[in-house]
Amino acid sequence: MKPTQKMTRAALLLSTIASTMLIAAPVQAQQAGDTATSDVITVTARRREESLQDVPLAVTAYTGDQLEAMGAVDILAIAETTPNVTLEASRGTNSTLTAFIRGVGQQDPVAGFEAGVGIYVDDVYFNRPQAAVLDIYDVERIEVLRGPQGTLYGRNTIGGAIKYVTRRLDPDAPALSARLNVGSFGQLDQIVSGSVPMGDTFRLGAAVANLQRDGFGTNLTTGEENYDKDVLGYRVSAEWEPSADLFFRLAYDSVEDTSSPRGGHRLIPSAPGYPAAYGVLDDVFDTRAGLDVVAQNVQSDGLSLTAEWNLNENWTVRNILSRREDESTTPIDFDNLPEGDLDVPAIYTNEQTSEEFQLLYEGDRLAGVMGYYSLEANATTVFDVLLDTVLTGLNAQTFGDVDTSTWSVFANFTYDLTDTVSITLGGRYTEDERTSRVLRRTYLGGFSEYFGGAGFAIATTSDFLGTNSWDDFSPTASISWQPSAANNFYFTYSQGFKGGGFDPRAQTTGTPDFDLSGTITADEVFEFMAFDPESVDSFELGWKYQGERYSHAVALFHMDYTDIQVPGSVGIDTDADGINDTFTGVTTNAGAATITGIEYEGTLDLGRDVFTTGDALNFSWALGILDGNYEEFINAFGVDISNQVQIQNTPDSTLSATLSYLTSVYGGDLNASITGSHRGDSSQFEIPFPALDQAAYTLWNASIVWDSEDGAWQLGLHGRNLTDEEYRVSGYDFVDNTTFAPELGTSGTLVGYYGNPRTVTATLAYRF
């Protein structure tokens, strides 16, 4: 383990909460892999507490106890057992999230692009993906809502939403818990949480997680670890409940990630004529990345105030006010070689203020919510692109500054026509405004002043300031038929919307002469820089069944996805010497796609057929099948290549299965489970490239967890990726897909980033 200053801070925080106690929340009755028949998971997907059985939406929910029992480290783990969901750490980063649900998402994390999947922590929307790879601690549950969301809360999200819900504080007695994880690659996690009532109406709580692990590989150039983890996160909260009808919660959270930069694995040797000959490394977790002008650091902080007032037995008022800020500094070595062939140090800063007001109603036959949401946000990105091997000291710098101002009103109500038939109608009206400044300059002398370099600007290739606005109305409607308590059939139509913007990497001097007039006009520059909103119409037919021994949720869906935003980058040869010496971003509303699929999640109680002693044997599964096809895809040259492209980051099949056995051992409960998760072939980008794309693979995880009879002690052993499967989760491609000739730089950039290898973790926990 690396001795860092952060370890000292972590030790101080831990000592203030729990001295030397090692305590953690025990797993409750419903273990990972248990059937849903023994314990009902309550969710708030429709802004009111309901069982999963009653919600006419495709929702997968995980309790905090389930996540602990399966050995999940962060929210990336839930993608293994959730159908048609992809969650990854973005290329070259540890904590920036790339999320896709049912083929809809956003890969590029730079300012100017809106997320296709909404991430919420305690109902606060994360406007940017930086620091959104959330570690799992102090969590009550995680809900994954598939399909467009927006008529119920928060930001209008076109692909779906992931809701991270933290635990509320115990109002009656002090509580203290802690967990110690020790595992392979030097893993050492310390997680402590506690709360104390300060009288009958007021309580304070805190949680801290110090998460550390050595690297899976080594940077052979700098000597640093590669794929290590060094994260400190904490959360403090205060809750005031002056009466049974009033509730206030003030919460502050902070995360700092000082892990080493994540270097990639070159999939090809350096190109002929490159200053040095480099072959392909044997270990995919080793790298030769030489970029070290800045240290990797991610800092994220958030403050939220939630207020609830039950006006009477029917009406409730809720308000959620939040302020969030984050800053990420990251050296991304695209070429992953010691030389500066394609080196990109970057700084991202984001800040946002959001306000959400809700008025909720629940009567005998009518229930629903109406509300107002507003977001004021700023996102900046600055990065250098050093092309030192093209021309010594050549640097293309990009500075993007994006202001987002949006407000919306929404409503969603369900009415029981009869005792068995309900209808839901909802709508959302949104107004978005986005203002972007894009400044691109060519430097000589190396890195710019942002990264401590002596480089100086010699040319400005973009100096753009533009504002655009859009408005949208997105409806939803559903009908649900529950002929019995065990069955719920539903049909839902929903529409999603994702705002447009300006490509912060685009080079205005590369604007095409659209009207062939011989002069590039301001309108043509605006058209080149801007991209429009995208929208989706989603149709879903579902059946949820819950019996004594068997339960399932089946959803068939079809989506018409139009004006799809496709960001990309292409190299540019500005001096006609045959070598690309800079690049430009090219984001287009490339076309339209249809996405059709099925999801089948279920649980089966096998124990009654096998045991007479009270032992439990349960089987659970999640299957996703997706067929997505572009009907139109216009590339940067105006050509329809829809027959050559695929839906990116979305396998055509996902399958997981868990077998769980529960028995009594030494007066407590012993739960042993094994999970297999399979993902079909997937393409990293829209244009398939077998040298970079990931073929189908299967991961195997296993856990054995013992809980004492009183729920105080827990011991666990978790193995993940037991077969040590090697699989790519992301990558960079700046080579010709046929000849592998370099498209930017002189070495050729074809790089993969990989999922975690086999790990084994032992846990010790205690709670009172």
UniProtKB/TrEMBL annotation:
Residues 52-161 form the TonB-dependent receptor plug domain. Residues 282-722 form the TonB-dependent receptor-like beta-barrel domain. It is found in: Cell outer membrane. Belongs to the TonB-dependent receptor family. Its main location: membrane. One of its GO terms (biological process) is iron ion transport. PANTHER family: FERRICHROME IRON RECEPTOR-RELATED, TONB-DEPENDENT OUTER MEMBRANE RECEPTOR. Residues 1-29 form the signal peptide. This is Iron complex outermembrane recepter protein. Keywords: Cell outer membrane, Ion transport, Iron, Iron transport, Membrane, Signal, TonB box, Transmembrane, Transmembrane beta strand, Transport. The lineage of its organism: Bacteria, Pseudomonadati, Pseudomonadota, Alphaproteobacteria, Maricaulales. It comes from the Bacteria. One of its GO terms (cellular component) is cell outer membrane. It is a multi-pass membrane protein. InterPro entries: Beta-barrel_TonB (IPR000531), Beta-barrel_TonB_sf (IPR036942), Plug_dom (IPR012910), TonB-dep_rcpt-like (IPR039426).
